[in-house]
Amino acid sequence: MPLFKILIYEDSDTYVEGLKFNIRPMLKAKGIDLKVLTRINGDTLAEDMEFIPHLVIVDYDLGDITGEEIIAVMNGDPQMNNSSIILCSGGESRDFLQSIADKYECGVACYIKDGDELANAILNKGLSLKG
Amino acid sequence: MHKPLKFKVSSALKDIIGQDLITDEFVAVFELVKNAIDAHASRIDIYFIDIYGQAPAIRIEDNGKGMSFSDLRDKWLFVAYSAKKEGTEDHDYRKNIYQNRPFAGAKGIGRFSCDKLGSSLLIETKRLKDDVVHTLNIDWTKFEEDLRAEFIDVEVDYAPKKVSNDKFKKGTILNISELRTNWDREKLLRLKDSLAKLINPIKGNEENEFKIQLHVNDELKKDSEYDEDEYFSIVNGPIKNFVFETLDLKTTKIFSSISSDGKYIDTILYDGGTKIYQIKEVNHFRRLKNIDITLYYLNRSAKMSFAKKMGLASRLYGHIFLYNNGFRVFPFGEPYEDPLKVDLRKSRKTKSRLGTGELIGQIEIFAGNPLLKEASSRGNGLQKNEVYEQLADYRQGYFISVLERLEKYVIEVQKWGLSIEDGDDTLKKDITKLLAFISNSKDIVEFDVPNDFLELLDASQAESAEAVIGNLNKIASAKGDKKLLKVVSQATSKLKEIQEARIEAEDIAAKAEAELEERVSENLFLKSIKSKDLEEVINLMHHIGVSTSTIQHYIKGISFRIGNDIPITNNELKTILGNINNEVSKIYSISRLATKANFKMSTKPTYIDVIDFLTEYLQNVVRPFLPSKLSMEVKATPNVVFKHSFRPLELTIVIDNLINNSKKANAKHIRVLLEKKGEKLQIIFKDDGIGIPIENMDRVFDYGFTTTDGSGLGLTSVKDIIEKNGGSIILNRKIKQGAEFIITF
Predict the structure, then answer these.
(1) For residues A54 and A124, what is the distance between their CA atoms, to the nearest angstrom?
(2) Is the Cβ pair B551, A18 closer than 8 Å?
């Protein structure tokens, strides 16, 4: 069974638990296993990259830093060539997130947490592993 | 009777007093330049000819007074005789222009510098009134042929020649050939550098009585690749010394001078362009007179500036030079040489002393110090005697006393880097302390305070200010110095004003502190609702967004499982519902905090004073929303702090849930007591509601247990949060009325 690896920068552990609770059975139903690595900030970024995630989800508001700082480091890093990046937020607008994402060449997709779009984007990425 | 005997002198003497004493070619050149200057030359031209060819040569031309035949025979060829020393030199000139300048080279051996440079010498010399040029041709190798030959028997060729060159009015030309070493561009630049140090930088490049010019045709082409102002990269041209022009404004410097009669020492210390102090004191170095010392401290910025302007690092340029009667004495100041033992001294107390790497300056010895003279071996400094020791002893000599004063300012006041020009108050305070220390010396006869002395007092400690004013008063009174007495009077009035102002300020500060203490506790939460920074509101909305998204995910997860017949265990469901309940509580708390929280709500653990946080939360956020029939009392042990790592939002959820339970239990009064017990914090939450029946006491924290219309999840959440944060919660079973929960962290 293919393993879908997500690296998520999110300081709310309950949010991560909720997200996993939501998407895991959907992926499993499609024959895809899920593995999630959660970090609350970018302090161990270099090490995190060794996880070789298929998808990196970065919350914009990480308390002491913004998700943009993490994206700035990842931008241009060859290790990120095979990873997709999503920038999301529970409080900022999509336009605001897009204005951040447009600064970087690594191609960042933007979603607000409210609604289904984010979960669907994650699922689609997982499903793409099956070819 | 025996015939008397006489000394014989081997021709080898030539090497003993020539090559062996002249340590290197640079010393040789400048000995010859010195001789030219002593011959009253105002201009010396040094030519390096055909340096890369078959017959390289050096020619040194001066426009000094020149020599007559008898001068050549009876002085120049008279080894070790120095007319300068005898005083017969210039007996007619002395009355004229140059009578104030003593002679730099007075040993009578400098002429052998020619031998150091080349084995063949042709002297051409002419006095103004003569109509012939006297020439002397010396082959130094003749002295080397047979050591048994006597020095006086080696012949040198003399010939008078008619004047063929109208331009040669007077002076001496030394033509040195059969050069003993090669000269190249790099060596010539070093020679230029060496000769530059010969020029006293204090006087400035235009004021020097003589000019030295270097001419090397073979390097003209290379020189043309550089701009005119790239002095240090160009070989040809005048010799200049820029070192103190480079340094003058930016560094801390000290000037000290022993008067010509040897009675007093004047010292001035500058921090950048600001005079810190100027004093006159009794000179205890009895054997010294007419000596000036200038020292600059090179901080990092000064070193960088130096390197940029001079084209090389200061440590490669040199450090403390010594000039005797206007001429430089080697090896003082040479990189890697330490004749004054400055580095040796520093190595014994690194943190409180300066080394040659941090200093540049000079010692100038003027007339009146006959016992301060060069060692016979050129390049070995001055002769060691008692007078020299008074000047240079590294423990208690004059030079060290000046260095110590500079160190005291740089290290104790500037702390190696501050400057009075930065306006730092700590530095001003330390300056006053320093002035108090210096002015306390009994040797001080005059004291000139800095221009901003009264301003310094502003920043000073009372003790130092009083001490310096007291000392200045003594000095001024002893001397009858009206100007200083006036300063003292002004300073005394100023000090009184300052002291009165300080007392007043201290009273105000004490009152303000008491007020501030009262207000600090109001700072975390606002007492009233008011408009908040947009950023704060957005931050709180973010938390609501996260909470609602979380709830959405759980709901979708449950829906998916139900719709696809994926089983959910009861335990899973409990966890999910508990998490949903937490998120709902957060939203509820946030909705109340949105207009009140004066701190950034973070879902990450934050190190906060729990007593302060809860007290403010209860008083400023909870109390306003209580029903009118429910009162609340909050008591906390005064002046006690308990800092712990919490997610602030979770702490509010704990309180909110307990309050809700009290409301549902129809309580009329809630009492919250926050007490520090040893290292622990105890929070006692008591209400006077319907209480908890004994049979239910064991189950109050159970998931879903409720005796009201609540969800039964509140106390479960409370217990989870408290335990997750390293605490515990128990129900006090001994209470007869109402309910009491004891939380301990």
Answers:
(1) 12
(2) yes
